[in-house]
Specification:
alpha+beta; Four Helix Bundle (Hemerythrin (Met), subunit A); Beta-Lactamase; 5-stranded mixed beta sheet; 12 strands; EC 2.7.13.3; phosphoprotein; transferase
Length: 658
Amino acid sequence: MNFTVNKLLVGGSILLSCKMLLIAYLAYRSFISLKEKNQWVQHTYAVLADVDKISSLISNIQNGQRGFAITGDSLYLEPYIQSIDSVDHYITDLRLLTADNPLQQKRVNRLEKAVNQAIDVQTNQVLLKARGQIAALMSYYSTNKGKESIDQITALMHEIKQEERKLLTVRTAALDASFTLTEQVLYGIVGIFAFIILLLYLLLSRQFTLKDTYEKELSVLNDDLYQSNQELLLFNEELNSNREELHATVEQLELIKSELEKIVDARTASLQEINAQLLQEITLHKTTELALLKSQERFRVALEHSQVMVFNSDKEGKYTWVHNTQAGFGNQHVLGKTDAELLPQTEAGHIRQLKCTVFETGKGIKEEVTITTHANRKHYFLINLQPLMNRAGEVQEITGTAFNITDRKLIEKNLQNTLLELQKRNFELDNYVYKVSHDLRSPLTSVMGLLQLMRSEENPETKYMYVSMIENRINKLDDFIKSILNHSKSINLDSKVSAIAFNQIIADCVEELKYLPNSGKINISVDITEEVPFFSDELRVTILFKNFISNAIKYLNPGVAQSYLTIVVCSTATQAFIRLEDNGIGISQEYIGKIYNMFFRATQSSDGSGLGLYIVKQNIEKLKGQIEVESEVNKGTIFKINLPNLQNMVSSKYPLPV
C-alpha cells in the first residue's frame, strides 16, 4: 500500500514537471508570437503614417507653387522646396516598409513615378512664374497636367492605404488571438501552481501518517521486549548495543518529529494568513459591491428627481441609451429615435449639427439650446456633448447631458423685466421730484414778487389787480397740489368696490370745477344708459371724470361760437363704455403718443401741472380698463374708455383682478 502511494506521488511529480515544461514552452512561444504580431501591426501603422506624410508633402508642394504663382512672393517657395527634398525620403522609407508585399511595391513604384511627374509640372510652373512668362503659365494651367498627376497620386495613395487597412484588420485580429492564447497560458500556469500546493499538502499528510505508524510499531516493540526480558538477559550485551542504537533512532525520530512540527506550524500559519487575506479580500469585495449598488441607486434617484437627461447617441443620430426622459422630451419614447423624429426641423437640425461637430473634431461641446415640445411649449436646455472613443482613438458614440434651465431663464427674464420697471420708476420719480419742487416753487415766487410790488404801489386799482394775480397764482398752486394728491391716492390707496352713480359723480365734478375761469362758457351734456348696476372704485372713477371735465374747460377753442363737452356712458353686466367728446383746441398728432407721460404739456398755452392725463392713464390701468383717443387741432378731442364691471365682488374692500 505504501509502495503504491509513493509511486503515485513520484509519478504525479514527474507528470507535473513535464506539464510545467510544456506550459513554459507554450508561454514562451505565445509571448514571441504576441511580440511578432504587435510588430506587424506597428509596421502597418508606420506604412499608413508614411502615406499620410507623402500626401501632406504633395499638398505643401501644391500650396507653395500656387502661392508663388498668385503672389510672386518667394516665401511660398520655402515649404515648396522643403517638401520636395523630403518626399523622396518618405517614398524610399515606404518602399522598404512594403518590401514583403510585391503588389504594394508595384504601387510604390507607380507612386514614385507619379510624384516625380507632379514635381516636374510644379517646377515648370514655378520657373515660368519666376521668368515672368504669365501667358505660358496660363497655357500650362489649361493643359491640366498638374491635376492629372495629383489625381493619379491621390488614387495610388488611396489603394496603398486601403491595402494596408485590410492588412491592419487581419493583423489586429491575429494580435487579439495571441492575447487570448497568452491569457489561457497564464491561466494554465496559475492552475499548475494550485496543483503544486495541493501536492505539498498531500506530502505533508503522508508524513503525519508515517509518524503515527512509527509510534504504533515502537509500542509493539516495547511489549515484545518486556515479554522477552528473560531472553534478553542472556543477550545483555547485544541488548545494550541495541538499546543504544534504539536510543539514537528515537533521538532521530524526535528530531524528525520536531522538524515536522515546525514545518506543520509554518504551513498552518501560512494557510491561516492566506485564509485571512482571502477573507479580507472577500469582505472588501462585498463592501465595494454594496457601495457600488448604493452609489448606483443614489445616481438613479438623483437623476430621476433632477432636471438632467443623460443619453448616448450613435453616428446616425439615434438615441442608444436614455435616462430620465422626463427632464428632456417628456414621457414619449425616445430610445431608437433621432432628433428629427422628436423635435421641430430647425431645432433638430441645430442639435444634429452639434453632434456632427463632436464626431468630426473628437472634442466636447457645451451650448444652450431651445427645444419646443409637442405641447408647443418652449424649454431651455444646457447641452453637454462628449465623445466616446475606441482603442484606435475614433469616436464611436456620443454621451451627453441635457440640463433643463427653463425655470432659471424665466427667473432671469422676470428679473430683467423687474429691473427695467424699477429703472423706469426711478426715472419717473426723479422727474416727479424735480417737477413737483419746480411747480410748487414757481407760483410761490410769483406771489412773493407781486407782494413786493403791492408794498410799493399806492394806486388802489393797481393793488386790486395785483390781488387778482396773486389769487390766480394761488388757485394754480391749489390745482397742482390737488393733482399731486390725486396721483398719491391712485397709487397708494386700496381699491374699494361699490356701486357707481355716474349722474351724481359727474354733477359733483361740474359743481366743484365752477371756480375755473371758463366754466360758464361750456355746455356739458350727459347721456347715461345702465342695463345693470355698475360696480367699480368710486374714487378712481371720480378722478377720471374730474380730469376730463377740467381739461375740457381749460382748453376751450376761442374760435367757436359755443363750446361743448358730451359725456356718454353705457354700462352692461361686463363693462362700461364711456365716450367724452369736446370741440376744444385739440391735440396735435405728433403729441398723441406722449399725452400720458408725466408732466407733459401738449400746448404752450397750458398752465396745468402736466399730471392730469398721466393720472388718468394710471387709474385706468389700476381698474384694468382701456383708453383710446382721437383728436384734431382746432376741431376737438374724443376719449373712449372701457372699464370692467366688478359686480360679482361682495366685500367692501377688494383687490382688483390680476
